[in-house]
Amino acid sequence: MAASTNQLENLVLRQSVLGSRRLSNYLVAGAVSIGGIGFFLAGLSSYLNMDLLPIGDATNLIFIPQGVAMGFYGVAALLLSLYLWLTIYWDIGGGYNEFNQETGMVRVVRSGFPGKNRQVEFSCRTEDVQSIRVDIKEGLNPRRVLYVRTKDRREVPLTRVGQPISLSELENQGAELARFLGVPLEGL
Q1: Domain map (residue ranges) of the chain
Q2: Where are the alpha helices (DSSP H) in the chain?
Q3: pLDDT in tens, 108-157
Q4: Helices 23-48 and 68-90 sit at what angle, rounded to 10 degrees?
Q5: How many other CB atoms are there within 10 angstroms of residue 154's CB atom?
Q6: Mean pLDDT along residues 170-187
Q7: Which of 110, 102, 96, 94 has its CA nearest to residue 14?
Q8: At residue 6, does pLDDT exceed 50?
Q9: What is the pLDDT of residues 44-72, one digit of tens each?
Q10: Distance CA 48, CA 43 (A)
Q11: Is 22 exposed, middle or buried (0-12, 13-18, 19+ CB in 10 A)?
Q12: How many C-beta atoms surround the C-beta of residue 144 within 10 A?
């Protein structure tokens, strides 16, 4: 039984893809939340003429125009932080790539925003995969992406969006995937 399980594991390659639950997103959402709370409390302090902030004295602010502006920026920052926290909670962009030799299918699944199309899924047969393509662009905004190119010339990205992965890791993933599917690796 162990041999058949091992063969099944060799027939299925599954790669998880990190979505919006990255450390940088947590740090940005936390900073925007703290800043938004501070600005909102400063605006509210100037309106109530009572100090609500633990540090500083916001009662010296004149409500119109400084207090209104601080309150507006605070509300805007709190709404932005709510969006960021919900994006992290829903793990937008997270998912997996599954290459199944047993069923002959390739599936790319990503999480989206809640609604009718919460799960974004692309699937095709392994025979329809023409190649694995590596796209590398260096410079101020580097891009390192791994694509599955199908016979009808569609290119489906396999790597995460945001932080580019290292060149060696990208090459290793591309070579492993091309070897597993028995297709050429392009773009190196």
Answers
A1: 2-18+92-186, 25-90
A2: 2-11, 23-48, 68-90, 167-181
A3: 999 999 999 899 999 999 999 999 999 888 888 888 889 999 998 889 99
A4: 150
A5: 13
A6: 90
A7: 96
A8: no
A9: 999 999 988 888 888 888 888 999 999 99
A10: 9
A11: middle
A12: 18
The rounded distance, in Å, linking the Cα atoms of 64 and 43 is 10
CATH for 2-18+92-186?
Answer: 2.30.29
Omega prior to 65 cis, within 30 of 0: yes
Measured CA angle at 144 (ends 27, 89), to 5 deg: 30
% pLDDT > 70, the chain: 95
- Three-state SS at 117: coil
Residue 54: per-residue pLDDT: 85
d(CA 57, CA 50): 9
Stated length of the chain: 188
